[in-house]
Amino acid sequence: MKFYKFFMPLILxxxxxxxxxxxxxxxNRHQEMMxxxxxxxxxxxKTIGILVYEGFNNLDAMGPYQILKQxxxxxxxxIAKNRGLVKNNSGVRIQVDTTTDExxxxxxxxxxxxxxxxxxxxxxxxxxNWIKLIDKKSIYxxxxxxxxxxxGATGILKDKNAxxxxxxxxxxxxxxxxxxxxxxxxxxxxxWTSAGVTAGMDMSLAIIDxxxxxxxTEAIMLDLEYNPKPPYLGGTPxxxxxxxxxxxxxxxxxxxxxxxxxxxxxxxxx
Length: 270
What we know:
By secondary structure, the chain is of the alpha/beta class. It has 8 helices and 10 strands. It has helices at 2-38, 58-68, 116-121, 125-135, 147-153, 169-175, 199-223, 242-268, and strands spanning 47-51, 75-79, 84-87, 93-96, 108-111, 140-144, 161-162, 179-180, 185-188, 191-194. A hairpin with a 2-residue loop joins strand 9 and strand 10 (191-194).
């Protein structure tokens, strides 16, 4: 009995202390979690606009949309020349409720790529002028895939490092005075460009990291379970079977090269 009377208060005190320490540790850990969620970006981002047009590549636009919309407090939306349904290059029609005429300021602008329609847009003066207007005040001006062709056509990328879709990449960027870098994504000041299609997601994650740091970025990656493991090493001309790479280039050439050559002549004679 004496043993019980002596040790029970001591055991109770130890238990209370351990319980309190556990609660403090849990509270501290919870606060650390909240700090990640509620932290403010290094630069205030209120508006993120993604330009879409007939024939745009769906993942070029929707990959960055899915990632960048997770910047707390920012409004992310699609913008087109005209309000209504816009058909992407897979034939899917997407409703767009905001027009370029209604937007004169964005913190982040994303320009997705496509194919023939993208080349046509490089000649659309109203779109090019709108991009230049947005660029005057933007915090990030970005492109995905061949969207760099559109950005290049504005003159914004002149003398800047940039990347784009692998197809005739060096040739296309040189045409607009940019310096091609064979990278997944390239940052030159506020200008961020990414290689083909899926690279837009990597670029968007890098922008999140630039704004909010590693833990916030990892949270988004986990939310998307973003951990690519393709069945083969490939996806770039250097890592793809040479026969397959040549086949793809020839396929693109049959459709794209005549228009590219015309564009070169137009720029030379401009």
